[in-house]
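ARCHIVE CARD
SHELF: 3
SLOT: left
DATA:
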Amino acid sequence: MSRAKVFVFKGVPNRFHHGALGVARTLGRLGVPVAANDELEKTAASRSRYRSESIVWRPWPATSSDIVEKLVGWGRAQDEPALLMPVDDAATMVVEDHAADLAQFFRFARQPEGLVRGLSSKWTMAELAVEHGIATARVAKVGNLADLDDLLADFGLPVVIKRIEGWTPGSRSVPSVSVARSHEQAREIVSQQPENFMLQEYIPGSSDTSWMFNGYFDGESRCLFGATGYKIRQYPLSGGFTTLGQLTVHDEIQTEIVRFLGAVGYRGIVDLGLRFDARDGSYKLLDVNPRVGSTFRLFVDSAGDDVVRVSYADLVDGNSEVRTAPIVDRRWSAELHDLRAGVGLVRAKKLRASQLLRSTISVNERAWWATDDPKPFMSALLTEMRKTARAGLTSLRTLT
């Protein structure tokens, strides 16, 4: 394997990005040098033994052009083009909009024009799914508050409210996904940014009806690696990111998603979310993230491959072989948030304490803790403890 560098690229400040840490570990264990940008000199992820270089952006660049200038400045100083690995929506859009400038100094999958934006928008993603015969939840744009009551009467309650676009600075000030259980809740959420919200039908079911697909597609849109799994727990409980996931083969989901992404000419890493709808027995596509997802280390085959390693092998080493190692059942957790999720379920009497303990122990890999790389976990845990202590002091002050 080549030793060309990787730049793990965050588009917005996030000192606790466990996906960025996962990228450093999975490639660093192969001897690949991994650099990443941070907003502070010392973050939990930057303490990893597998992070070879930390580039501090402080203050954080104000515009995408400023970000590109910093990336190009770093890339120009390297001996050979590095693999650029965006890990959030904002970073993905920077790469999409400035691909020509960045391609001089970085390697990354080049997508068909407009596809990344089309998949990242919750609205156009749903349109693409319908166009290609992929089941998806019913959606409707809000547009303005005057239309909301009629839409709620049509969709009923509860209803999912989603931010259509989430990569611009203004859009990030509103929640990406909410579940409204009353007209008042819906109006409160939508009033923050009506033109950037849509309603999505609520599909009943527990977190384990939420399925995921992670894959890597080469320059000819062939799926070199793909795997499926489902959520066991999520945070927030009402609908959030995976805190405990189960890797399980699901041929029906994989076949349909590979067909869909091949039809639209997709290239590179992808992270998708689906929901099983017991009302009609279908798996409905809800989200497409045209980048590496924070849960990617759940999806590992028996040879140790994941989407990040396959991407590196294809774009740097020129190895475009389809991975054939079997997928074996395994569990992954984002342990710090999973504790919150589990305690919440215990308090709501939806989970017994003994079940929480067993599920916490029976995990193959954790986002923060690793026996060969313990410092990120210790740093993140210490930060969480300080945050909890400050919150407790604030509560005491309000009581006195």
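SLOT: right
DATA:
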Amino acid sequence: MTKVGGLTAKYYKETKGLKTSGGQNVKSGTILTREGHKWQPGLNVNGKKMHLTAGCDGEVYFTRKKNPSRKVVTYVNIKSAVEK
């Protein structure tokens, strides 16, 4: 039996994780993370736990806070390029 198309298990782990770094400028709709439970959506970030995308143009920054179950969680935020 052969596999047709797609990624093999060997290379699948390379597609997971953080796709942008702190201080990086991104455009709206840019993928920030993939398949991670370590990151939560913060300000101007769309998506749920698995895939986070940018909600507006701006600069990426991270904050760490304790959630209600006292675990430290990293939030991905975007500082809007157009601030009022």
